[in-house]
Amino acid sequence: MADPGVRTSPRNAERSIVASSPGELPEARKMKDESHIVGRDDFADKLVSLLIDKKGDRANLRVISVVGEGAIGKTALVRSVNNRADVKNHFDRCAWVRVGPKPNLVHLMVDLLKQLRVQELRDVDRMDEEKLSDELLRVLMGCCYLIVLDDLCELRVMDELMMVLADSRNGSRVIVTTRNPDIPSSIDLWYPEPLTLSPLEREQSEKLLEKCSPSFDVADLKKTILSKSGGSPPKILLLGGLLSAATSDRRTDLAYRLTHGLPDRPTLQDVVRLSFNDLPGWLKQCALYLTLFPKESEIPTRRLFRLWSAENFVSSPSENGVNRVDAEECFEMLVSRHMVEVARQKWDGSARSCRLPGSLYDVFYQMAENERFLKIYDCSIHGKKKFDAPRIAKHRDISGWGEAKAKINVPEAGRGCSETNAQEAHMEITPASDSSPLCGIQQLFSYVSFNTMKLGTRAGETVVLLKPLVPKRHSSLLRVLDLEGVYKPWLPEELGNILPNLKYLGLRWTLLERLPKSVALLSRLETLDLKYTNISSLPESILEVENLRHLHMTMVDFDCSTYQLFSKKSLNCNIQTIWGLVIDDESLMFGVLNKLTGLRKLALTWKCVAESGATKPFLNLKMLKSLRLRLIWSPSSGVLDLSMLKLERLKSLSNLHLLSHMRVHSLLESHIPPNLKVLTLYCSRLHDDSMGVLGKLKCLTTLRLFAHSYDGKTLSVSEGTFPSLRVLKLWELEDLTAWTIQANAMQCLADLEIKDCKKLNKIDGLQHIKTLEVITLVRVSDELERSVGEKQPDGRIIAKVLVTEFDMNASNK
């Protein structure tokens, strides 16, 4: 029997087990998970109990309010609880929307429906308010859901939303964060006492500051920081980041600026300005550029880094000998100063996405606008041909920003500082006076659109932007044209002639069906992102664009004239990313790929593998770090000999994703790149237990054996193997019945996930692993669940908490 202290779950449910011995976490993740709620543990525990307690009348839909002044940590607290495994797995569906000062109810409902993963829903952007209300009610009926309404400022929108939120008496919850103390009592009379956050006490503030700068023994400086922060978590984090960045020879100067550059009771804006002014000029530009994205939104680092590069804020991949910091280093600097939060992480622990905290966003944007560094416009504004800044973004729902900006009242960078620090405080971006001329279309540097409402017609904003340039072939200074998510934007055939300075062309999720052939004339282009479009072919000359470094596609083949490209010497051998290419044995693209010796990342769908050509694409790719290889064989009964691929020659390869629609004959040590860190196998149908071979990979940190990757009945992990493995995922290994782990194996394993391995009833030796943080079980046998939850002979429980989530498929039927 499972220990009574472990919560169990019903059959056919997802179970996550939080282990008792947390392992070492990456520093950025530690800060994300821990720092923002230091001193709020009691609030977090209370909020969790209010969310998951269904006893008695608490089975009804309830609204939980989190109240407090600005920059007190409301959003951070709710986000930390919302991200917990036991909370996520308790609810069938979850959504988070920021409401703001003047919300648009239609847009809020559209955002909710998109986040609630309604697969059968179509054309949600074209629905009117009544239809959206009906759909939202239908989707939520019968579900146990959690919806977070962040920054609620008025009751009207709450009243309208509550009318369409279904109550199936199964424990659904709505969390509201607000600065208005009068709102909670008007929302839910059953919860008359909201969670009210106050400034941190002295002891709590000291703990938070210690997490920001633990290695510095500077009592006087820390005392000053605690005095100036007044118990505000964002102020403590920012000043702590300032302290951690100060070298020993600069601490005297920092002490002076803390004492004389800040009033006794500084506002958050004062602290933000002090921290911002400490940044070097190029890093200030990187920080302000974050405000082009919608407030509190998740920003993919993939996108951010390429945009920084296109704007020349950081070193470009095409530059040689330029003494500038690269994007990753710049990003880590901002994270260490608590100006940017890591939102999601990749398998290797690096940041997948980030977020500019809302408390900083308003201040940063006002700085950027005052300096005419960038400007945000509402998507509803059409036909504008003159702009207030060289970098613009189109957002939805920016009405109400005037009120927000009036409250901020941030001076331009450099104003209000002492004479000593005035020069340092300046942003190093040439300020523009009120009489400065407006920027015409030809003077724009960046155009980024978040007009992602698909209204059934092509987005016309690019017509207004680009058409004036076409008749006289006027050229533009535009470096960035980012239309990710914009529905089928218009692109002129003369695109390559009128945008000679373009470095970033982002068309991901636009559903475009073709690209102007003149795109190959964009000689300065560094990034071309066509992922998740309907573009199926490209001119082969795109591979001749000298500065192109990143090419993202979805199942794209090149034109039939590849033989012309193969014979040319003008190939861009420095391209680093080709993602989404389709190739077959007869294609001359084999030879082309072999010439692209600078490739770091390659995603390839390879049809009809034949022994005669199997080694061709990889012979010279010595710098390749990531390979996603989808192999399609006809007939499907074919058997792949991995030795044909010669992958062992790829000494730099650290990430291999092998999706094979044929049986892999065997997995031998001599077939595997020796320095792999991440390995994913899918549909390889291995017969032999390959754990002995894989366990010898000393650098391997993540192993994912997905559907039908292994057909055997047993797995055995030998002593001393998998010395670096942190993440192991076993999915749909249908014949697996037994798994044995010997002592001193997998001694770094932190995250174990087993999904749809229904014949596996027990794991012998799991107790030997002391570093487990999370075990997730999805649709496994009750016997396996019980064995994991049982007490060990020494009284230790491998898993402290077993949380449940009703099977999504079952709940949606």
Automatic annotation (TrEMBL):
<dbReference type="InterPro" id="IPR058922">
    <property type="entry name" value="WHD_DRP"/>
</dbReference>
<dbReference type="GO" id="GO:0051707">
    <property type="term" value="P:response to other organism"/>
</dbReference>
<feature type="domain" description="NB-ARC">
    <location>
        <begin position="46"/>
        <end position="211"/>
    </location>
</feature>
<dbReference type="InterPro" id="IPR055414">
    <property type="entry name" value="LRR_R13L4/SHOC2-like"/>
</dbReference>
<keyword id="KW-0611">Plant defense</keyword>
<dbReference type="InterPro" id="IPR044974">
    <property type="entry name" value="Disease_R_plants"/>
</dbReference>
<dbReference type="InterPro" id="IPR002182">
    <property type="entry name" value="NB-ARC"/>
</dbReference>
<dbReference type="Pfam" id="PF23559">
    <property type="entry name" value="WHD_DRP"/>
</dbReference>
<protein>
    <recommendedName>
        <fullName>NB-ARC domain-containing protein</fullName>
    </recommendedName>
</protein>
<dbReference type="Pfam" id="PF00931">
    <property type="entry name" value="NB-ARC"/>
</dbReference>
<dbReference type="InterPro" id="IPR032675">
    <property type="entry name" value="LRR_dom_sf"/>
</dbReference>
<feature type="region of interest" description="Disordered">
    <location>
        <begin position="1"/>
        <end position="30"/>
    </location>
</feature>
<keyword id="KW-0677">Repeat</keyword>
<feature type="domain" description="Disease resistance protein winged helix">
    <location>
        <begin position="292"/>
        <end position="362"/>
    </location>
</feature>
<feature type="domain" description="Disease resistance R13L4/SHOC-2-like LRR">
    <location>
        <begin position="476"/>
        <end position="778"/>
    </location>
</feature>
<dbReference type="GO" id="GO:0006952">
    <property type="term" value="P:defense response"/>
</dbReference>
<dbReference type="Pfam" id="PF23598">
    <property type="entry name" value="LRR_14"/>
</dbReference>
<dbReference type="InterPro" id="IPR027417">
    <property type="entry name" value="P-loop_NTPase"/>
</dbReference>
<dbReference type="InterPro" id="IPR036388">
    <property type="entry name" value="WH-like_DNA-bd_sf"/>
</dbReference>
